[in-house]
Specification:
Structural class: alpha+beta
Oligomer: single chain
Number of helices: 8
Helix content: 40-55%
Order of helices and strands: EEHHHEEEHHHHH
Largest sheet: 5 strands, antiparallel
Length: 229
């Protein structure tokens, strides 16, 4: 199984070969468990430091996942077949790993468990990278959305001679009534305002935004609504 220590792995969040993957073989007849060098490393060991056993394997599973692992193992012992499991593993240094294990349980001619073979891929770095990327994208998206909304507020302030709070309130009320995201409405306003040829459409959209407020009639006549300025 040493050849699997150099197996190619790929993650969309990381460079090629950034995920550690190791192989294992469980001989159900003799009880012997063999690990590749990479699997020792995932568990925080070097070959020769420990002897893999069922008890050792379970001891390294996250306490919250052990019951499911036992259940999965029992099912494999009874029915055989292919399996996969995404779970948490605690290595010898008390570091938590997110791993994906997949393999096959083979039964003998009498229907008893004969062997279990498979691989384990350590996805910890991938999960962390994806989480960090999602967080960065969310923050960047929120900043962009806020900037667009502020521009839309400015457009309404200039067109309707109202204050910032009133302009934002108009956008919020319109968003609630139409079930459209505030950022989407703001983006439409900004896009129309950037093209002079869209002046008539922009006016119509602003009137549509106003119609959900009791002050719409006064604003359409060009008179700042009391309480909106």
């Amino acid at each position: 199984m040493s050849t699997l220590d150099s197996m190619f792995t790929y993650s969309s969040a990381l460079e090629p070969s950034a995920c550690t993957a190791g192989a294992f073989l469980i001989d159900a007849v003799t009880g012997v468990i063999a690990w590749s060098d990479a699997l020792y490393r995932i568990h925080g060991y070097q070959r020769g430091e420990v002897v893999p056993t069922v008890e050792l394997v379970l001891a390294h599973k996250h306490p919250g996942d052990r019951a499911k692992i036992r259940e999965l193992h029992a099912g494999m012992a009874e029915a055989g077949g292919h399996f996969s499991s995404y779970h948490r593993l605690i290595d010898s240094h008390q570091h938590e790993h997110r791993v994906l294990t997949t393999g096959e349980a083979v039964l003998d001619a009498n229907g008893r468990l004969f062997s279990i073979t498979g691989i384990m891929v350590d996805l910890t770095s991938t999960v962390h990278a994806e989480t960090e990327r999602a967080a960065r994208d969310a923050v960047a998206g929120a900043v962009r959305a806020r900037a667009v909304i502020e521009r839309a507020v400015g457009i309404l302030m200039g067109r309707l001679s109202i204050g910032a709070d009133a302009a934002f309130s108009l956008l919020s009320v319109h968003s609630n009534h139409t079930n459209k995201k505030l950022a989407a409405i703001a983006s439409q306003l900004v896009g129309l305002a950037e093209e002079p040829r869209n002046a008539a459409v922009l006016t119509a959209v602003i009137h549509d935004i106003q119609r959900h407020t009791p002050h719409a009639t006064a604003v359409r006549r060009g008179t700042p609504s009391e309480g909106l300025a």
